[in-house]
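We were asked to recover a plausible sequence for a given structure. The inputs and outputs are reproduced exactly as logged, with field labels preserved.

PROBLEM: sequence recovery
POSITIONS: 186
GIVEN STRUCTURE:
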């Protein structure tokens, strides 16, 4: 599978991708988005956009992310990786694409919510420079659970390669991702 990571293609989600995206959605979340919700984000919301990751010769979708751009803030709404593709660095690459998109769109920060119990996702986001900036009480259901609000400002991120991990970038001295400022919330 690791050799397939070199055969990844990142592209915008299309209506023809909906069935494959729903498979990942249901495998990734205890309360997945419905087809209607996904369609609304893909096509009926002018500030929303998505990205899918295709792998291998058959170009199957193995990961996806949904985002909203609101003024100077990119909100990462939903990130899912197919279970067979987890723990292979794909989430890191997807977050790198999100940060690159944020830079291209001229945003000042990226925010997201993550379940308080989802330590794997928290570890990924923290590795990429996100820090807890707030708490949303009872944000999730099935089961009811708090969400940690994570954020990262992008002012110190000037160059971001899609194939490098945070550690590689820092070792090369291109940027220091830990320099992301914490967004202070009341």
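RECOVERED SEQUENCE:
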């Amino acid at each position: 599978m690791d050799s397939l990571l070199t055969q990844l293609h990142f592209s915008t989600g299309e209506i023809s991708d909906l069935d494959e995206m729903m498979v990942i959605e249901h495998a990734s979340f205890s309360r997945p988005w419905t087809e209607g919700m996904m369609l609304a984000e893909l096509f009926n919301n002018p500030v929303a956009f998505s990205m899918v990751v295709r792998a291998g010769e058959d170009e199957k979708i193995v990961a996806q992310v949904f985002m909203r751009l609101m003024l100077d803030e990119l909100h990462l709404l939903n990130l899912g990786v197919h279970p067979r593709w987890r723990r292979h660095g794909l989430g890191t690459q997807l977050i790198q694409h999100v940060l690159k998109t944020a830079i291209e769109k001229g945003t000042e920060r990226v925010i997201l919510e993550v379940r308080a119990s989802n330590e794997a996702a928290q570890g990924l986001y923290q590795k990429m420079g996100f820090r807890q900036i707030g708490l949303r009480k009872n944000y999730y259901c099935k089961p009811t659970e708090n969400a940690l609000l994570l954020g990262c400002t992008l002012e110190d991120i000037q160059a971001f390669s899609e194939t490098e991990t945070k550690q590689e970038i820092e070792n090369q001295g291109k940027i220091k991702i830990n320099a992301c400022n914490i967004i202070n919330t009341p």
